[in-house]
Amino acid sequence: MIKYSKENIDLYLQDCIEWMGSLDDNSVDMTLTSPPYDNIRNYNGYSFDFQSIAKELYRITKDGGVVVWNVADQTINGSETGTSMKQALYFVECGFKLHDTMIYLKKNPMPSSGKRYHQSWEYIFCFSKGTPNTFNPIEVECKYGNLKANQKYRGKDGEKKYKVTKRNAFSKVRNVFEYVIGGGHTTKDKIAFEHPAIMPEKLAEDQIKTWTNEGDLVIDPFAGSGTTAKMAYLNNRIFSGCEISEEYCKIFIKRLEEHITKNVNVLEFIV
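Below the sequence we write its predicted structure tokens.
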């Protein structure tokens, strides 16, 4: 087992089942990850045991903690696999609640051929262990939030009645999150694009800030290029994660080096 550790960031070069097995029960505030999508990408030939991972995530998640799972489906022989929905149902079988089904909408998706529309979105499932402890919704200012309105309702006799009500100044955003992707948008870190699939930094930040508070523990069992780690660090959360590919670990470290406090020594693996 090889570990890299600096300033609230721990990364283990290790299989995720083995790594999660070392974590305590009910110890994690949030998991934010984007696992391999069927066989859409060849992640250095590695595969994963989804059911064992889901069970371990339930064990290590705190009561009130969440797992945010960004996933999509492969199309094989003209049919979408439906793997994402099967995974969601299995998380529920493990004991999680399917707390929120969100959509990650790509404003500039890759054009696709064939007899179907361009695929422009992916699921972001939020599974909770009980009721979430934290919810810091992203809000937008309401256009008429400074005005009052006549709220209509009917009394017991069926007669229409009106009550002057102050409008909300702010409102939660809808659960469809739109992001521009690609060079300079997904991230400005050029090193990250050496990984075949990068989560948009804004997506990671939005989810981390929504479901956790400063000082909370955020993990990623598929650490990849380090997006979850970077956004957890920049938003004052503690990060721990693992990655089975040594090549991807090197990408992770080089990327994070650019964002760690300047007076910290060069990051190194420690055996």
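The two ends are 7 Å apart (CA to CA).
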